[in-house]
What we know:
The chain is mainly alpha-helical. The protein is built from 25 helices and no strands.
Amino acid sequence: MPGFWGAVGGEDHAAISISKAINTQEAPVKEKHARRIILGTHHEKGAFTFWSYAIGLPLPSSAILSWKFCHVLHKVLRDGHPNVLQDCQRYRSNIQETGDLWGHLHDRYGQLVSIYTRLLLNKISFHVKHPEFPPGLEVSDEVLEKTAGTDVNNIFQLTVELFDYLDCELKLSESVFRQLNTSMAVSQMSAVQCRLAPLIQVIQDCSHLYHYAVKLMFKLHSCLPADTLQGHRDRFHEQFRSLKNFFKKASDMLYFKRLIQIPRLPESPPNFLRASALAEHVKPVVVIPEEAPEDEEPENLIEISTVSTTEPQITSDMFEQTFGPPNGIRDDRDAQIESLKKEVEMLRAEMEKIKLEAQRYITQLKAQVNSLEGEVEEQRKQKQKALVDNEQLRDELERLQRVKQDSDRSQRLCAEAEKKANATEIRYTKLKEKHSELINIHAELLRKNADTAKQLTVTQQSQEEVARVKEQLAFQVEQVKREAEMKLEDQSVQLEQLRQELDTRRDELDQAQRSLSHAKQASTELSAQVEALQAEKEVLRRSVSEKECELLSARGLVEEKELQRSQEVDKATREICELQGRLLEKSNQEQSLQQKLLDEQFGILQETVREAEDILRDAVAKLDDPLHVRCTSSPDYLLSRAQAALESTGSLENGHAQYVASMADAAGLVGALALFAHLMADTIVNGSATSHLAPTDHADRLTETCRDCGQQSLDYLGKLKDKQTLGCAELGDVRRALQGVLQLAQELRPKSLDIKQEELGDMVEKEMASTSEAIEDAVRRIEEMMSQARNESSGVKLEVNER
């Protein structure tokens, strides 16, 4: 039983704290009440108690009450127990209903409530989807890197979600500052503080979101081209300007100066096109002072004196009422009460000292933590800078190595070319010398032949033969020289021919010697000429030997070139094989990415189908909901809704055909499906509301037709969930059901709509005349009320009445 009463007492304290924190007074939420609610979530490891009281609050009755509820919920999400997030996820429909209600009303606080609820819903969705980020948004850079991963698509999507998150925060701050006109510019006014108080949590969220967005943008620019991320950079620059303007306005207000230390952003946004700019980024740090504001009196979280003093007081009052006042004699119980009171006061004072000491220690530790974080940030900057410098040096070294390799290759080619030129020049010089020598020998022989012709008339025929042989030999030598210069590879054939010709000439010389044997005795000069011819023959033989040596060297050079060419061919073959392997790998990767894209598009379609099914089931459930009986609608409105739903089936059918033709793009089908689901649900709900005013027969038929519309739509959506039946899904049954609704709505239209055009014009003129008379009467009454108020009131009361 003591535990039960303790629990009941705890719930009473929670109810008191919630009622004090969330009320209709236009004043900021006191920190002590919010702190009690947050400590309660840590005590019970969740927000069940908070929501059990929160759902009973009359939020639709007061916009200020809804605004303070959103503020407390934001603080509970940020600083409460981690399980609070799941509890808030279960009650997100209540939050959304509150925002939708006040969004339709033209109330200053109502518009702020609508924006605040969208921020809270976005916050809950983001942290449920990414549990690595706590609702307080405090994570290390290592956790951020691990969450982002290495997949560019995941990094891209996470960056977009952070931008959306930051947009919601900035929109709330801009809306608050827009409502603070000149008459409410003093931040010490209670009404102004009521609007400004939630911006403390917005500043805390924005500082973390800005830091994470900068990190992910640098990571994206290291993976994707700059042109691809132009839209991201434009959106970030716009958010940077809004956030800087928000921080500047908040820093200038006295209300924030005593509650929060707002960081300063740099003058210009980071340059994501320069990787080294990441080292210049400084994480913005928000500091919340631990000391309570002076206008807030300290209060113990546990009221010790309440239990110890209340019960004796009640007992003493009952005793005095029954037996009269005491006669001056204090019994032992009074003494115990007094001693307990003194002990409680001593314990309270000691607890205050301990609390002050603990706060001082916490402040010192936080200062140390901030200094250590600054040192870590500085070391991280130095490390990042060193990595960037190392990368630049590595690139420079690779470039120098490539330049050195190119220069070495050029030097080798130049050396080889010089060697080839020198060898060619030497061969040409040798051939030129041989040619000159042969010309000189030929001229000498011609001169000797002329002398011999004059002296030896007897041997004239033989001499002419010798001259002819000489001419033939000279011509052959010229031919050999030309062929050696043009084609070295044909020299072996030419040398064979020369050998044969030399043998022939040798035979001819032998014959000439035999024919001249009779003339040897007559002329010694003729024998000398023969000896000269033999010497010339020896010279030609040596020349032929040299040509053979040159031919062998040329063959060796050709073989070397062929070997080099074969090596180059092998190298090119290996490179081709390597490129083919890379091409195959790229094609496999492209196929996997294509399959992943198809799976993602199909997953998006399935999420849309499930959402559409939920919408339609909710609409069909309204047909049997007893709370929906009071809702009514007109046949004309039902007719317009059913016609719009029928028209949406055409775009849905086109989107379905496009998706079946190309499953890599489900955007058209998803958009058409969402529109169809909402219009169909609207038709079913309005059909149910129209049936409440229709005759019984028509009401039953209309209800069943609406139910058939919902069932046929759910059957069509069921076919879209399976890849086997997705291609054969058709909307014929859905169209027939909608046409049935249109027919019934047409039958339920009032018969008065068949009035002729002339009668309708007369009725409209009569109605306009009566309306004009009513307006003139109302204007006259308002003027009488204003004149009466001016006569009876003055000052502030007169100004209020005029408003």
